[in-house]
Amino acid sequence: MIYLNYTRYGGAVSHADSTWSSLGKVNIYPKPSNSSNWNLTINEYNQNDGLCGKYALGEIKLNVYYFANYNDWNRKSCVSHEFGHALGIGDHDEEYNCIALLYKVVGCFISPQSHDKKDYYDRWQ
Q1: Is 96 exposed, middle or buried (0-12, 13-18, 19+ CB in 10 A)?
Q2: What GO molecular function annotation could you give as one example from this UniProt entry (predicted)?
Q3: How far apart are CA 57 and CA 64, in angstroms?
């Protein structure tokens, strides 16, 4: 998965990259400057919609409405969660999905948990 990051949150994006890359199976890296190919774009949007970010059709959108006031942990949590979606991992029950309702609960985990890893390995065996 080659990504192009247009956001100001490079640290959180790099963290998500290295966290998911450490699982193996899928090569994840930023678009090299000498390449014109990528399959994931990371952008920003600004909306009071209760979401830290969202993923659809090869694009992660990070919500600066919330990110502006987040600490580093919460940013990493959100970006890691959205990278999971980009890798084909769906949401889980709310007991596991700490950032499902971000306006109520923010950023429990900054790396894939056991159920995420299971889904990842099932998908990318």
Answers
A1: middle
A2: metallopeptidase activity
A3: 20
Place of tokens 């998908």: 123
Q: Rounded to whole angstroms, how far apart are CA atoms 9 and 23? A: 22
- pTM score of the predicted model: 0.86
Tens of pLDDT, residues 22-59: 999 999 999 999 999 999 999 999 999 989 999 999 99
Domain boundaries, the chain: 2-117
Q: Which fold has domain 2-117?
A: Collagenase (Catalytic Domain) (3.40.390)
Collapsing DSSP states into helix, strand and coil, what is residue 55?
strand
SS3 content of the chain, % helix, strand, coil (to 5): 35, 15, 50
Which 3 state secondary structure label does DSSP give 114? helix
pLDDT in tens, 60-110: 999 999 999 998 988 998 999 899 999 998 876 554 445 444 444 455 677
